[in-house]
């Protein structure tokens, strides 16, 4: 040994500990099983609440999703596609009076002449977005499905093979 | 902030607000107070992303800002408040037990949105309650929207106004419940933007300094909210946007600011905690005094002497929840909160030792709690456990920091043979250790749950698609054979897999709720030791 073995705790003449041939087990052995979870109406209800809250929050505008990934080539159809929330847009209307001025985001106007309406609730904003989209649709001459720039080709899974392929 | 707490905060932020918000929140927790440009520089995110995230975090009271003297704004994360996201279901459920479905939805809306004006809350809650009421669309039988009804038990609102298309919820009732929540301090007003007289010379400050007067915190604005909840005309998710917008314009909601513009409300978390604490103490005492409580006569016609007896019993109880001070006027009884919280925390520790190490270890643990300091030999004698086992158990508990060793040297040279080694339980320190483990546990549970969901992502998406198809087919009145065909798109083993997944996720979620209860008990106790009474 290159060091004094006694420092580690192995006395003179003691056998060395057996060599380690594999990594230690992933989990320590469980001597006592955990007690069962308390069931009951309260527990069930809180469980449902928890899961609902999680689902609900994912759909609120407070859930900030990253902007659409930048396409490799700019395509003509991009102008007419339903755009997912862009990074520079904010889908709800905070009370800007309560926030530092530096945080104010310029909301990108999709149509000219649209006045900002101060609405405390966020859900109404979602409805307005839908209204905007439908109005935008009315503007265009072509229907949405006309513009298929081919990027979705091959992305769909071929799960259901029951459909006849022509 | 321990690593465990930071990790848990990250997971909570990510699950409820997405990765962008999580990244910024975590950055602020780790580095402390920062200005905007530092956040942008160090996180590598886009400026607009950071702005949006900060707005969200501030809206939800998870980050605060402060205007520094030199004119720039700094942002600070509120780590403890972020951890409270775990407790949201408990707050909502408590509101339900106290103020029924209306109270439940008010608290839920406030938690989901961070802060809201009273008029907005009332309107939203009335709409939601109306949705779940009986009556409904005359045109066709629409299946209930998935998930939102949560198996609500029979709703008995005080007044139902039957509109042409079913019952609706009156604004007045929701208002009343809101006022009651404010009166009992479960909701409180947010600090306000100060009313500064317009001075044309000075530019507006970069950030407002929000203020609130203590006495205004629970003052409900005088509102004349008249109206009823609105039911959506059709249950389809793809609602006719135009139709909806037209409806809103008719209501005149979007034209003027509401009468309580600028007055925002938030959930008063501390008040809920008070309630939980009281609940815990009452149920602990009730368990203890089970016999007495059961024999209490119905109604509070307790004769003074009987009451005296009960109070004395409570005061003399070794739990020391109730203390008696003085005898004037029959004596003044107080609830000793600190002792009560300590008892609850200790009981939790005992229970955990019992479950983790077995009943013999638990016996030793309780012995140490009672006798404070014991030598090895004394432990063996008092606990009536053979020396070898006792030693083994003590060392096991020692290694996990449930018990600690106190050295008392007999001689100045601290020679081991001439030193007393006493085992003891340091409750505050063990509580802190356990709390840290709880944070870690919840974080592990969440990660595992997310992993399980991710593994089965494809199957889950397929199942959701099939559900959606089924729902729309049912709405258009499809035949049973057609429905069955669609249902069969999910094979039997896939169904099995989904069942298993659901069971596992439910178990993990329920466990997270359970651990949060323990977190609450331990945190309350530790807080009470830090705050000098």
Strand order of the largest sheet of chain B: 1-3-2
What is the 3D shape of chain A?
elongated
State the helicity of chain A in percent bands.
10-25%
- The overall pLDDT average of chain A reads 69
The largest pleated sheet of chain B is described as:
3 strands, antiparallel
Most extensive chain-chain interface: A-B, 58 and 77 residues
Biggest sheet record of chain A? none
What is the helix tally of chain A?
A: 3
- The first-to-last residue Cα distance of chain B is 25 Å
- The residue ranges of chain A in which pLDDT falls below 50 over 5 or more consecutive positions are 110-125
Which range best describes the helical content of chain B: under 10%, 10-25%, 25-40%, 40-55%, 55-70% or over 70%?
55-70%
**What oligomeric state do the depicted chains represent?**
heterodimer
* DSSP E strands of chain A, number: 0
Mean pLDDT of chain B: 82
The percentage of residues in β strands of chain A lies in: under 5%
> In whole angstroms, how far apart are the ends of chain A?
77 Å
Helix and strand content put the structural class of chain A at mainly alpha
Family (chain A): Belongs to the eukaryotic RPC7 RNA polymerase subunit family.
Subcellular location (chain A): Nucleus
Protein name (chain A): DNA-directed RNA polymerase III subunit RPC7-like
Keywords (chain A): Nucleus
Summary tags:
heterodimer; A: about 170 residues; mainly alpha; B: about 525 residues; three-stranded antiparallel β-sheet; about 60% helix; RNA_pol_III_Rpc31 (chain A); DNA-directed RNA polymerase III subunit RPC7-like (chain A); nucleus (chain A)
């Amino acid at each position: 040994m290159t060091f004094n073995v006694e420092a580690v705790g192995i006395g003179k003449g003691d056998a060395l500990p057996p060599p380690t041939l594999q990594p230690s087990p992933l989990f320590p052995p469980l001597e006592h099983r955990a007690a069962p979870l308390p069931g009951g109406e309260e527990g069930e209800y809180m469980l449902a609440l928890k899961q609902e809250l999680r689902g609900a929050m994912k759909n609120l505008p407070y859930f900030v999703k990253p902007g659409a990934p930048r396409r490799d080539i700019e395509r003509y159809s991009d102008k007419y596609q339903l755009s997912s929330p862009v990074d520079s847009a904010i889908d709800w209307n905070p009370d800007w009076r309560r926030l530092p001025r530096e945080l104010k985001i310029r909301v990108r106007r999709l149509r000219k002449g649209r006045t900002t309406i101060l609405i405390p609730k966020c859900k109404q904003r979602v409805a307005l977005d839908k209204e905007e989209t439908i109005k935008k649709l009315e503007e265009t001459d072509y229907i949405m499905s006309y513009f298929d720039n081919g990027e979705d080709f091959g992305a769909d899974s071929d799960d259901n093979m029951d459909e006849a392929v022509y | 902030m321990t690593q465990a707490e930071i990790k848990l905060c990250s997971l909570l932020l990510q699950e409820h607000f997405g990765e962008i918000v999580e990244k910024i929140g975590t950055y602020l927790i780790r580095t402390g107070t920062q200005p905007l440009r530092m956040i942008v520089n160090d996180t590598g995110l886009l400026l607009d992303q950071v702005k949006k995230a900060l707005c969200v975090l501030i809206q939800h009271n998870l980050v605060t800002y402060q205007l520094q003297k030199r004119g720039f704004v700094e942002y600070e994360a509120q780590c403890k408040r972020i951890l409270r996201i775990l407790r949201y279901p408990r707050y909502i459920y408590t509101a339900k037990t106290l103020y029924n479905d209306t109270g439940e939805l008010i608290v839920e809306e406030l938690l989901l949105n961070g802060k809201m004006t009273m008029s907005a809350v009332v309107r939203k809650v009335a709409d939601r309650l109306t949705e779940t009421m009986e009556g409904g669309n005359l045109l066709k039988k629409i299946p209930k929207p998935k998930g939102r009804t949560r198996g609500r038990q029979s709703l008995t609102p005080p007044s139902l106004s039957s509109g042409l298309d079913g019952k609706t919820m009156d604004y007045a009732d929701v208002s009343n419940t809101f006022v009651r929540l404010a009166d009992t301090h479960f909701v409180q007003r947010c600090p306000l933007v100060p009313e500064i007289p317009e001075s044309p010379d000075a530019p507006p400050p970069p950030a407002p300094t929000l203020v609130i007067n203590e006495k205004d915190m629970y003052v409900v604005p005088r509102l004349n909210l008249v109206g009823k909840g609105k039911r959506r005309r059709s249950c389809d998710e793809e609602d006719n946007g135009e139709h909806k917008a037209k409806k809103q314009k008719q209501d005149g909601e979007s034209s003027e600011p509401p009468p309580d513009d600028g007055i925002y409300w938030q959930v008063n978390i501390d008040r809920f905690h008070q309630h939980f604490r009281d609940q815990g103490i009452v149920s602990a005492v009730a368990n203890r005094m089970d016999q007495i409580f059961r024999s209490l006569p119905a109604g509070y016609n307790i004769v003074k002497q009987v009451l005296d007896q009960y109070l004395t019993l409570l005061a003399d109880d070794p739990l020391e929840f109730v203390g008696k001070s003085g005898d004037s006027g029959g004596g003044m009884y107080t609830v000793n909160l600190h002792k009560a919280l300590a008892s609850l925390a200790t009981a939790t520790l005992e229970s955990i030792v019992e479950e983790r190490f077995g009943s013999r270890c638990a016996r030793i643990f309780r012995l140490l709690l009672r006798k404070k300091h014991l030598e090895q030999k004394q432990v063996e004698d008092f606990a009536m456990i053979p020396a070898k086992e006792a030693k083994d158990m003590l060392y096991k508990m020692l290694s996990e920091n449930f018990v600690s060793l106190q050295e008392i040297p007999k001689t100045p040279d601290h020679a081991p043979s001439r030193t007393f080694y006493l085992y003891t339980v340091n409750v505050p320190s063990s509580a802190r250790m356990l709390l840290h483990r709880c944070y870690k546990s919840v974080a592990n549970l969440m990660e595992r749950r997310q992993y399980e969901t991710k593994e089965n992502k494809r199957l889950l998406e397929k199942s959701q698609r099939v559900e959606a198809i089924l729902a729309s087919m049912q709405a258009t009145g499809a035949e049973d054979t057609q429905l069955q065909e669609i249902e069969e798109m999910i094979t039997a083993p896939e169904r099995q897999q989904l069942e298993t997944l659901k069971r596992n996720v439910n178990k993990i979620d329920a466990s997270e709720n359970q651990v949060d209860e323990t977190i609450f008990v331990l945190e309350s106790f530790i807080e009470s030791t830090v705050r000098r009474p």
